[in-house]
């Protein structure tokens, strides 16, 4: 495949048409939302990251906990649901981000789906890098004084127990 230089970058010829149609799009990624770290047991993960490494608890569910990093609003999220490390990127709209990724030459791995705070989509760039993109269209998690995630009405979410 031939490569061409466009505004100081090398692009495959097949991508040049998109680049010239929209050379300066609005940035898609707003910020790093969180680092999702798989742990086999939430209590063990909290003992390590919170108690030994000093990261304050922000919120907690039965299967996950958000911890503060002091110089950013990105969180460390300990979770027991999947056995993988991932970085989640915040976007304005997960649905619009999926369309933008496809239009730019990427692909959708998992179509947009609902999550507690909004919508999420899993995509791949043209070089096979998987990205998790989420929006906060439903707003941030609400917690009680103990950091347990509660519903928007202030009730404890069913199944959370006294964490």
- Helix proportion: 10-25%
Low-pLDDT windows of residues: 156-163
The rounded distance between the terminal residues' Cα atoms is: 56 Å
| Shape annotation | elongated
Main sheet? 8 strands, mixed
* Helix/strand/pairing category: alpha+beta
Q: Main sheet: which strands, in order across?
A: 4-5-6-3-7-10-9-8
Work out the radius of gyration. Answer: 19 Å
Count all strands and give the number. Answer: 12
Assess the beta-strand content as a share of residues.
Answer: 35-45%
Overall mean pLDDT: 84
How many distinct helices?
A: 3
Q: How would you describe what is shown here?
A:
By secondary structure, this protein is of the alpha+beta class. The protein is built from 3 helices and 12 strands; from the N terminus they run E-E-H-E-H-E-E-E-E-H-E-E-E-E-E. An 8-stranded mixed β-sheet has the order 4-5-6-3-7-10-9-8. A two-stranded antiparallel sheet has the order 1-2. The longest helix has 11 residues, at 42-52. The chain is elongated. 18% of the residues are buried. The model is unreliable at 156-163 (pLDDT under 50).
Sequence-ordered SSE layout with sheet pairings:
Blueprint: E1 3-6, E2 9-12, H1 13-21, E3 31-38, H2 42-52, E4 57-60, E5 64-68, E6 75-79, E7 86-90, H3 94-103, E8 107-115, E9 118-124, E10 130-134, E11 142-143, E12 149-150
Parallel strand pairs: 3-6, 7-10
Antiparallel strand pairs: 1-2, 3-7, 4-5, 5-6, 8-9, 9-10, 11-12
Short description:
By secondary structure, the chain is of the alpha+beta class. The chain is built from three helices and twelve strands, in the order ββαβαββββαβββββ.
């Amino acid at each position: 495949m031939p490569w061409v230089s466009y505004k100081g970058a090398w692009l495959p010829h097949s991508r040049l048409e998109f680049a010239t149609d929209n050379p300066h799009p609005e940035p898609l990624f707003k910020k790093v939302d969180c680092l999702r770290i798989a742990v086999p047991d939430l209590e063990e993960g909290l003992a390590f990251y919170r108690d030994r490494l000093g990261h304050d608890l922000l919120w907690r569910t039965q299967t996950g906990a958000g911890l503060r990093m002091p110089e950013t609003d990105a969180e460390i999220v300990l979770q027991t649901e999947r056995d993988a490390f991932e970085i989640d990127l915040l976007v304005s709209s997960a649905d619009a981000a999926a369309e933008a990724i496809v239009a730019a030459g990427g692909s959708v791995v998992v179509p947009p789906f609902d999550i507690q705070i909004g919508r999420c989509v899993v995509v791949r760039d043209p070089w096979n890098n998987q990205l998790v993109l989420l929006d906060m269209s439903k707003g941030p998690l609400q917690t009680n004084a103990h950091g347990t995630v509660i519903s928007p009405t202030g009730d404890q979410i069913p199944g959370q127990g006294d964490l």
